[in-house]
Amino acid sequence: MKELNTLGQRFARVLEEVRGRAGKKREADERADKVHVVGAGGLVTAAYEQLRNAAEYADEHLLLQKAIRRFYKRMFFTQSAEFIAASADELVTELTFAEYLPNDSVTEATVREVNRLASVYHHIYTQIQTSRTVGSSRGDTWAIDVLSVEVARLFRDTSAKEAFVQFAFDHFKKTTDFAALFGGISPADIEPALYVAVHRALIKSDHAIVRAALLRRYNQSPADFAGYCNVNAEINRLFDSETTEKVTRYVDRQGAPLRILVRMLESGTNLPELLPRKTRFLSAYEEQVLAEYKSINQRINRGIVKSVIFLIITKVLIGIAIEIPYDYVVMGGVAWEPLLINLFLPPVYMVLLRATLTTPPQANTIRLVAQADEMLYGTASRQISRVSQSTFGAAYNFIYALIFLIVFSGVGWLLMTYFAFAIPHLIVFFIFLSGASFLGFRLSRMIREVEAVDSQQNSLTVLRDFLYMPFVVVGRWMSEKYAQVNFVSMILDMVIELPLKSILRMIRQWSSFISSKKDQL
Prior knowledge:
Elements: H1 6-31, H2 42-56, H3 63-78, H4 81-84, H5 88-97, H6 108-130, H7 138-155, H8 159-175, H9 178-181, H10 190-203, H11 207-217, H12 225-240, H13 242-254, H14 256-266, H15 271-274, H16 278-331, H17 336-354, H18 362-377, H19 394-418, H20 423-448, H21 459-484, H22 487-520
């Protein structure tokens, strides 16, 4: 029977160390004093968080971090340094009411560390805001983003996932011929690019998580302002580099067996015990593959629901702000047919799209298990498999552009001819159908991410892609722009969240005051 290879042995050893530290921390936390949250606002806060998350359409594993970021963005904007340095209790209260943290789960020691981090990064934020060389726009990404990640790590231990990232990084570094991948010369920034790629492609880290991880990896302290800014500027360039983009695509396509491995970690599987026992591990790995297929179906269903809610919320706001006023000004009344089509077709389209998403066949499971066997117990040779090296000429790009023109002009002609669409209605239609197409494409990626064998193409799928891809491409472009300037989230933050959280905090403070007066009687 094969034994664990060198990388596998190191991975098992690190996981055992992580488990030991986690056990000691649990024992210490059980004896420590904890924060108990009481007061008004729990139901309202939880309901608002559901609305806010639907509007932002963030991945579930990022929700805690993003809630922390919103809290500190609000604090940095409205509160003094002294208040921020003692704001951790308020943060814990909000996160507990929003159901991100169980009550009585945060120790007083953690609260003190959160306050320390908040003070440190608020100082950095202030320095960035007043610096003539850095630019005030960097404050959010270089200070608040990093703070939100570091605070989230205090609430939820990520040591096992960080060990996985290092294992995956070492695996690709050992088994990939990057010189061949890049046409003969390996780029100078290949190692940091690979680290970013593993984060992005395998555990869906956003820029904030990757930035914080790189700062820790480079041992860059925020106390050194000049060094901190220089490293962050290098990280910005790394995020935008062609090397990172190409390596990310490679890792993404090769990453199916590793994604199953990280799911085993997340599900609580005792990997340190299983890994040295090949037969037991591969059996558990196969079970995890099957469980992942089931989980994908459930996540797709939840994703469809979230997408429909997201589309309806956004469409109602757009309708109130643009379509209905336009109809009254130009047509003298509401054009119900375009309005209803624009409101209901994208969500219905999302629901119908669900029927086309099916999990991989048994051959994929067999292939995944074989890849896991080779990855952990074999001696994989260097390779650049499953990455297309083909280049396509101008004729392909011309036909691709022509497809866009035919699809969009054809759909536009039909709507304007038979459904009384005006140009503004048509623009809204294309925006929302493209958005729905890209959301559906993102859901289909859940299946592709665990595919170790290529899916078969037939005439029906080719026709579907012919009509589908133009809307996906436009939807992706819009999604990137929307993520940069999310008007719905901005409205929720300024019109609802800021006054709502302020009012709830005042109510809790008043409640504490009344309680103290009762104690004095």
